[in-house]
Amino acid sequence: MLASAVAASSNALLKIHDRITFDESLARKLLKRLCEMADKTVPDYESARQIAWAFRVIYHEITPKEKRDAVIEQALADLEGRLFLDLAREKKPAEIETALPDRLKAAAEFDPGYFRSRFEMIAGKL
Questions:
Q1: Phi, psi for 42 (deg, rounded to 5)
Q2: pLDDT tens readout for residues 77-103
Q3: What is the rounded distance in angstroms from the CA atom of residue 18 to the CA atom of residue 72?
């Protein structure tokens, strides 16, 4: 009984997913909105990470690798270095424990001005 309910729910979700279309213009508006958020708010460390992650994912999804802007890529790389955006590097518990002091230091030393300056660079290239 429960399995058939889960299957029916999954099938309904798949039907909804099939109707979703990719909208590049909406994605570009989202990128601009993220830049505005970075400019008009004073995010904390975790909020800044979420804004940067969202921007990076959307930008990389809509921009082929060979067409990505070097300034945007450098600004994202700078943010990666400060915000530890690449979680894939830490897969084992021992690696996470080793990285924890650096993560805590980065959160404590988070500079919203630096974050904002990187997004100003990004916004200028969109």
A1: -115, 90
A2: 999 988 988 766 555 556 777 878 888
A3: 32
